[in-house]
């Protein structure tokens, strides 16, 4: 058993819309089937009793699959999907298992492998340890409870999210509509406001100025000044070091001169800056303010025990901790109380230690702060808060300038205004913890994640920008450019990926083949992008899944005979169709799939589309299209001298004469591209006058669409440069050329080494019927083939050529082009199938300039 | 026998506009005792000693209007109060707190002067004033004085309390005449509020209140910044790469981006932070765009983008130019004081970002002053504003109100409470009752106001305090309220009070007169000029514009007057409706207010802020 390959499918993929780990595993014949492994299943169950049940005729791939799934599930990950299946390669199987956290999924694979090996080889397997490791890792890598709640709320609203770090920094939405949060802090949270909130004295002075009750007080210079301050305040006071922590050196509720002086001395030991403040009687409350609303409120209590006159403090704590609701981290509602140094110090302050036996009913504090993570408790009181009290909390947030904050209040009760009960605001916290409101120890949980999302995104806003994904064997790059142009002329900044690079507006920000998920994610991250048009190649889909969770419009131009067959276990056009179908599967329920009705594989993809479908085909009588139109659904076709968008009785016409790339409709593959683009634009709701304007102004030349049917004139001959490199592409090129008059036709052709032999031969078979002269060239980059191998295959394709009379083999792309040019005279036509697009186009331009 | 000494009888910090100037000043009442007999020219060697310690006094123009003027006065003979003023200002200057306003005025008491010096910060000016007294006394008595130590100490005090230069350059740009945005310093740190009430924005160094805390976190995390910037196609220096080698001819540049626009750029000296050459004009447009994109990717509204570039005038891509980092709260000094090249108005750019389209950040502020009846007027005006839909703050002798909520009981017609209202982010309109005491002892809380109301003055009522002993002085006190009316604002003046009428020409804005009697000559002259006025004709309350009269409502419909049109209350009603009219409140709202107002606080909630 060897794992050949592990892939994380991070977006919608061949197996579904969920994230999944995909393994390629090699088993020997002996180890594969359970039948060959007597007792294996029992030994497996012995080691991992919770593993799911196996189908009849189960095998090792099933064992691995269910182990990866079961281990994750037992560790608390909500996963359900798994599959295993054979590949065309003997002994090689694919195992696909859903994950929620990639790292946890990968560890589960590792442990499942160990488990299977252990069961096979009768070795021990420590299940408890394995599950512990998975749980710990999961708790480590998954979002914390506050961030997690906000993300869950976003997901429920259909807002896409992406973690920008391993920590809690998360992006919501795409492009120019994106927002960010970091834990319970959002991108509109002001840095200045946070600085103010951190400075308790400054906060207090601003709150006081704003009419928010705060404990009055001032810094004091010495013990006598402390007494003077206490007298000014009249009544019990708190004496505390200005920058103290954990309640060190704090004397609360003191009133007599003697106590005040002693309190000053204690505080002064901790810090030279000592404050005397009015003592606020009552309990601690936390009020959560989001925007200008009070969203939740909780009463907080520090960890404590109540004496029974019998047990020691240690025993009382142990009893509390035996509650199964108390865990050790953030995962459970309550957290265990720790008798650590801080607890011991807190006890010492009360002149107690762990062995003390408090009298019956005595309330012994074990900590001064009420954080849940150190054993405190929270009780939801949201519905009880008096509106005037709520108004003061909102005033406090507004005064400090925080749009999302926790306001700490001390008062006897939240049922009455602060002013009527000597209550006050003691602190305003940026980035407040949400757990006490999400899962209070007592009382109702509150939808605070939803409130935060609602404050960031208007009710009807899901943070998405229009997203069009385009795939197909041929024409996809031109279609992508056309759609981007149709969107862009209204002033929107379009992010576009294709096999030449990544474009934002008019800027190319990345080069090379950018039709994969990484480039898609970059476009969707770019803060200036208002709409995205993404060429989506099969490589990325197979490798990683889509770079987005769903799209508004998916366009499949065609599958035809397919391209790159033989790679990645995709051996025929049907299988390729399944891969490209993932795009159609990802169409949103209000979205549109634009499908080529004349291509049966593409037309069949309609079944997985949860949105609507727009079919396109030259001929409106084409069966699939005709049926679709008859049902009153959208279709695009050619009618006489125009492309028509039809729905029910509606007809929108775009004259072919107004679409320059089609040359009055003579270049059929450009007509197809135009139809696909028009259908996509229609799907996005772009007005028809804008569509017409866009089609009329789209220019397809070497500068705007390099390698896409670029036409030149050289010494009176017509040159066409194209990146076509598969039989379908060659076919449409031949068709297009047929409409251009020519005395003599010359073609310059090569072949990519990673194509199948028959595909290479087929290309020249087709060219042999359409060209008089053929120049075959080969470059240094052979993609895995020996020198001369490609040219030999190409030559084989020409063996029975009807039209070709001259064949020449040239080494190097530039010399091949130069040879062709030297053969040309006025009125000839030359098709150059370029490989190194930019370099060759530059070379051709140079030659034309030289004349 | 009186001793030879300068005694400070009282020191007042006037934090806002006052009888001397619009700016904050320290006013000290000085008793020079028998030094009254020792003008500077009779003290042998005094002028030389003074000039030896403070040679820069030679720059002071004083009443001669040219450098050396003050020295001339010293030689001709002037008194210690005046000398104290100049010495204090010079010590402030040396401590780094420029600002030249000063006055020394005799009072009616022999040997007692009021010495006034501009005071940006109370503590700094107090320290300078104390040092000035010691210095002047040492010069008089011919005793030694450690000028060096004094200078050092004052510099230290100044450094502790002065705004840092980043914040200061923004505040200066905001408060400059062409923007006229008011500023309130909110803490001894560098937190400053620009604008008033709900229209305010805050700054702290080169950070605005919209500078995102998350973005700052990202900016401080080079690995993450690198990843995010490069995913948007920007060329960024990989933080894991070694520092650029010696052979590298790229130079460090700092580009300042504010609100998505490149504002300034400087070539920095790698080894010396203080050397910066302004290159703003030379930056290639694509580089400016890249800097703006970088700040947007990080999420900062104000950012310093550091780059390594060979030639700033060419695109980054052509020369291996890279972004090194994006900084929050960038230092502005490289742009405001480049060691060579033109200083850039970066403070102004930040102000324009915070207050676009010439917005001055002001809310309607109504200031009310007079010897009597001002509290009543204040309540009325606040009621009109509330009826007009504005969340209104009111500071008056009855307390501090936020809308209808009584937040603080007792006399709140003072600088502190008025400032609290202007600081409050909920407040959309402010009504502030002033008094002679506020102007004389505290200064006004606002720099300018939309509407200034002067009800009426009984000069004798103010004699005796603050050395006031004549009409002229009283006039000076009350006119302050008219002086601060904005050019777009209105002074609402009692046409029946000759002293108040005299203030009309002092107003930068419009004047609306009011009077119970519609036949005053002042009113007809005002009508002649097309001015607005409010008065009673017959049984009706009239709003007049020039000679056009409009009946607002019959007096009988104003229950507050209790059916008595001759009631003293009528004056308050007239002043208040005039102010409401000046504020542009709709007439039907004013009418409704007049028909329903009662001075009984209805649902005002009692507060005990004395927690």
How would you describe the overall organization of this protein?
The complex is a heterodimer of chains A (851) and B (611). Chain A has 28 helices and 37 strands. Chain A has 851 residues and is of the alpha/beta class. Among the domains of chain A are: 2-141, no CATH class; 467-697, UDP-N-acetylmuramoyl-L-alanine:D-glutamate ligase; 710-850, Alpha-Beta Complex (Protein-Tyrosine Phosphatase, Chain A). Chain A has an eleven-stranded mixed sheet, with helices on both faces. A six-stranded mixed sheet of chain A has the order 32-33-37-34-35-36, sandwiched between helices. In chain A, strand 26 (551-556), helix 19 (573-585) and strand 27 form a beta-alpha-beta unit. Chain B is α+β, with helices and mostly antiparallel strands and 611 residues long. Chain B folds into three domains: 7-161, no CATH class; 213-358, ATP-grasp fold, B domain (D-amino Acid Aminotransferase, Chain A, domain 1, 2-Layer Sandwich), CATH 3.30.470; 365-596, Mur-like, catalytic domain (UDP-N-acetylmuramoyl-L-alanine:D-glutamate ligase, 3-Layer(aba) Sandwich). In chain B, 33% of the residues lie in helices and 23% in strands. In chain B, the strands form four sheets. Chain B has an eleven-stranded mixed sheet, with helices on both faces. In chain B, strands 10-9-8-11-12 form a five-stranded antiparallel sheet. Chain B has a four-stranded antiparallel sheet with strand order 1-2-4-3. In chain B, strand 3 (102-106) and strand 4 form a beta hairpin. In chain B, helix 1 (46-53) crosses helix 4 and helix 6 (165-175) packs across helix 11 (346-354). Chain B is flat. In chain B, 52% of the residues are buried. Mean pLDDT of chain B is 92; it is low at 602-611. Classes of the chains: A alpha/beta (851), B alpha+beta (611). At the A-B interface, strand 7, helix 7, helix 8, helix 13 and strand 24 of A face strand 7, helix 7, helix 8, helix 9 and strand 16 of B.
């Amino acid at each position: 058993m060897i794992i050949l390959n592990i892939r994380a499918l991070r977006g919608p993929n061949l197996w579904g819309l969920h994230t999944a780990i995909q393994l390629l595993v090699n088993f020997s014949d002996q180890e594969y089937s359970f039948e060959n492994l007597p007792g294996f299943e029992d030994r497996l169950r012995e080691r991992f009793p919770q593993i799911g049940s196996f189908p009849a005729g189960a095998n090792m791939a099933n064992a691995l699959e269910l182990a990866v799934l079961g281990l994750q599930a037992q560790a608390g990950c909500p996963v359900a999907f798994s599959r295993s299946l054979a590949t065309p390669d003997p002994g090689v199987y694919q195992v696909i298992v859903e994950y929620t956290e990639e790292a946890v999924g990968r560890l589960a694979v590792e442990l499942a492998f160990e488990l299977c090996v252990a069961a096979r080889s009768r070795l021990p397997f420590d299940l408890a340890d394995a599950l512990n490791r998975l749980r710990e890792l999961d708790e480590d890598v998954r979002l914390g409870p506050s961030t997690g709640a906000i993300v869950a709320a976003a997901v429920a609203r259909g807002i896409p999210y992406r973690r920008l770090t391993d920590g809690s920094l998360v992006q919501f939405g795409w492009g120019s509509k994106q927002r960010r949060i970091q834990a319970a802090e959002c991108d509109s949270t002001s840095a200045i406001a946070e600085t103010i909130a951190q400075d308790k004295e400054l906060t207090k002075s601003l709150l006081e100025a704003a009419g928010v009750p705060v404990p009055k007080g001032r810094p004091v210079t010495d013990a006598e000044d402390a007494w003077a301050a206490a007298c000014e305040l009249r009544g019990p006071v708190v004496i505390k070091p200005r920058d103290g922590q954990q309640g060190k050196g704090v004397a609360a509720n003191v009133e007599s001169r003697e106590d005040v002086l002693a309190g000053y001395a204690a505080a002064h030991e901790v810090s030279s800056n000592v404050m005397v403040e009015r003592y606020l009687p009552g309990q601690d409350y936390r009020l959560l303010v989001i925007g200008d609303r009070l969203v939740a409120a909780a009463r907080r209590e520090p960890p404590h025990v109540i004496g029974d006159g019998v047990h020691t403090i240690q025993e009382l704590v142990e009893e509390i901790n035996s509650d199964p609701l108390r865990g050790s981290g953030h995962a459970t509602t309550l957290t265990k109380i720790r008798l650590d140094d801080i607890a011991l110090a807190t006890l010492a302050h009360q002149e107690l230690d762990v062995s003390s036996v408090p009298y019956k009913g005595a309330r012994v504090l074990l900590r001064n702060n009420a954080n849940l993570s150190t054993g405190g408790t929270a009780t939801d009181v949201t519905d009880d808060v008096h509106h005037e009290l709520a108004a003061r909390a909102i005033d406090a947030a507004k005064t400090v300038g925080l749009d999302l904050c926790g306001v700490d209040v001390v008062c006897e009760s939240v049922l009455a205004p602060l002013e009527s009960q000597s209550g006050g605001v003691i602190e305003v916290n940026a980035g407040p913890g949400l757990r006490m409101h999400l899962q209070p120890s007592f009382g109702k949980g509150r939808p605070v994640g939803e409130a935060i999302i609602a404050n960031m995104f208007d009710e009807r806003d899901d943070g998405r920008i229009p997203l069009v994904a385009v795939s197909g064997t041929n024409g996809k790059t031109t279609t992508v450019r056309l759609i981007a142009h149709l969107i862009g002329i209204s002033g929107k900044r379009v992010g576009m990926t294709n096999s030449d690079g990544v474009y934002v507006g008019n800027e190319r920000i990345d080069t090379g083949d950018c039709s994969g998920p990484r480039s898609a994610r970059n476009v969707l991250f770019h803060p200036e992008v208002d709409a995205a048009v993404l060429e989506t190649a099969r490589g990325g889909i197979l490798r990683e899944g889509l770079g987005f969770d769903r799209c508004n419009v998916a366009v499949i131009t065609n599958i035809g005979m397919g391209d790159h067959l033989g790679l990645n276990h995709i051996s025929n056009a049907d299988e390729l169709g399944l891969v490209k179908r993932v795009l159609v599967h990802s169409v949103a329920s209000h979205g549109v799939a634009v499908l080529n009705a004349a291509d049966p594989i593409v037309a069949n993809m309609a079944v997985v589309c949860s949105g609507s479908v727009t079919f396109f085909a030259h001929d409106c009588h084409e069966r699939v299209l005709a049926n679709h139109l008859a049902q009153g659904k959208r279709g695009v076709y050619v009618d006489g001298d125009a492309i028509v968008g039809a729905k029910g009785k509606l007809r929108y016409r775009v004259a072919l004469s107004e679409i320059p790339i089609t040359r009055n409709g003579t270049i059929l593959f450009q007509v197809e591209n135009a139809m696909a683009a028009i259908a996509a634009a229609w799907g996005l709701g772009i007005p028809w006058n804008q569509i017409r304007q866009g089609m009329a102004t789209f220019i397809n030349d070497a500068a705007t669409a390099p390698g896409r049917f670029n036409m030149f004139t050289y010494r009176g001959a017509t040159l066409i440069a194209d990146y076509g490199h598969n039989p379908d592409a060659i076919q449409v090129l031949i068709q297009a050329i047929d409409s251009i008059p020519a005395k003599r036709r010359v073609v310059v052709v090569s072949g990519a080494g990673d194509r199948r032999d028959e595909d290479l031969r087929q290309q020249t078979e087709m060219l042999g019927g359409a060209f008089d002269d053929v120049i075959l060239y080969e470059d240094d980059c052979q993609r895995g083939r020996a020198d001369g191998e490609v040219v030999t295959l190409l030559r084989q394709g020409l063996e029975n050529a009807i039209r070709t009379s001259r064949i020449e083999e040239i080494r190097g792309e530039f010399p091949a082009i130069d040879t062709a040019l030297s053969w040309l005279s006025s009125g000839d036509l030359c098709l150059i199938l370029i490989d190194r697009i930019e370099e060759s186009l530059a070379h051709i331009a140079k030659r034309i300039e030289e004349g | 026998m009186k001793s030879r000494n300068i005694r400070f009888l009282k020191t007042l910090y006037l934090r806002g506009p006052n009888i001397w100037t619009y700016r904050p000043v320290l006013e000290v009442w000085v008793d020079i005792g028998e030094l009254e007999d020792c003008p500077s020219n009779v003290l042998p060697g005094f002028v030389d000693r003074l000039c030896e310690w403070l040679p820069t006094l030679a720059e002071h123009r004083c009443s001669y209007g040219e450098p050396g003027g003050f020295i001339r006065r010293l030689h001709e003979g002037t008194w210690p109060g005046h000398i104290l003023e100049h010495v204090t200002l010079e010590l402030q200057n040396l401590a780094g707190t420029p600002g030249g306003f000063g006055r020394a005025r005799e009072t009616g008491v022999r040997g007692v002067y009021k010495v006034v010096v501009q005071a940006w910060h109370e503590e700094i000016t107090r320290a300078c004033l104390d040092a000035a007294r010691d210095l002047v006394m040492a010069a008089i008595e011919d005793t030694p004085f450690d000028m060096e130590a004094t200078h050092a100490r004052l510099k230290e005090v100044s450094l502790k309390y002065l705004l840092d230069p980043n914040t200061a350059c923004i505040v200066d740009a905001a408060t400059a005449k062409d923007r006229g945005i008011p500023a309130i310093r909110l803490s001894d740190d560098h937190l400053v509020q620009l604008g008033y009430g709900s229209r305010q924005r805050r700054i702290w160094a080169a950070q605005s209140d919209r500078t995102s805390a998350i973005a700052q976190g990202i900016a401080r995390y080079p690995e993450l910044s690198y990843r995010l910037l490069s995913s948007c196609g920007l060329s960024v220096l990989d933080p894991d790469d070694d520092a650029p080698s010696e052979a590298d001819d790229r130079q460090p540049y700092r580009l300042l981006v504010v609100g998505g626009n490149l504002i300034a750029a400087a070539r920095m000296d790698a080894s010396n932070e203080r050397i910066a050459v302004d290159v703003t004009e030379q930056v290639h447009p694509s580089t400016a765009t890249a800097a703006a994109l970088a700040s947007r990717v990080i999420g900062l509204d104000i950012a310093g983008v550091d780059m390594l570039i060979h030639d700033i005038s060419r695109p980054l891509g052509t020369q291996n130019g890279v972004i090194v980092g994006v900084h929050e709260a960038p230092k502005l000094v490289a742009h405001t004081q480049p060691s060579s090249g033109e200083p850039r108005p970066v403070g102004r750019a930040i102000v324009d970002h915070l207050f676009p389209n010439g917005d001055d950040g002001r809310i309607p502020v109504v200031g009310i002053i007079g010897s009597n009846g001002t509290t009543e007027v204040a309540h009325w005006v606040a009621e009109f504003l509330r009826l007009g839909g504005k969340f209104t703050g009111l500071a008056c002798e009855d307390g501090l109100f936020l809308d209808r909520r009584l937040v603080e009981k007792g006399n709140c017609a003072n600088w502190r409470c008025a400032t609290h209202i202007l600081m409050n982010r909920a407040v959309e309109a402010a009504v502030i009752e002033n008094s002679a005491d506020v102007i004389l002892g505290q200064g006004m809380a606002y720099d300018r106001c939309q509407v200034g109301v002067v009800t009426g003055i009984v000069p004798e009522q103010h004699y005796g305090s603050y050395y006031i002993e004549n009409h002229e002085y009283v006039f000076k006190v009350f006119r302050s309220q008219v002086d601060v009316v904005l050019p777009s604002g209105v002074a609402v003046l009692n046409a029946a009070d000759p002293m108040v009428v005299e203030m009309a020409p002092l107003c930068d804005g419009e004047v609306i007169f009011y009077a119970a009697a519609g036949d005053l000559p002042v009113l007809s002259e005002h009508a002649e000029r097309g001015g607005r006025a409010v008065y009673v004709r017959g049984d009706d309350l009239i709003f007049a514009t020039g000679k056009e009269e409009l009946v607002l409502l019959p007096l009988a419909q104003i229950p507050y007057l209790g059916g008595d049109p001759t009631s003293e209350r009528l004056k308050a009603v007239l002043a208040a409706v005039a102010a409401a009219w000046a504020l542009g409140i709709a007439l039907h709202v004013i009418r409704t207010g007049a028909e329903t107002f009662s001075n009984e606080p209805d649902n005002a909630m009692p507060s005990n802020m004395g927690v």
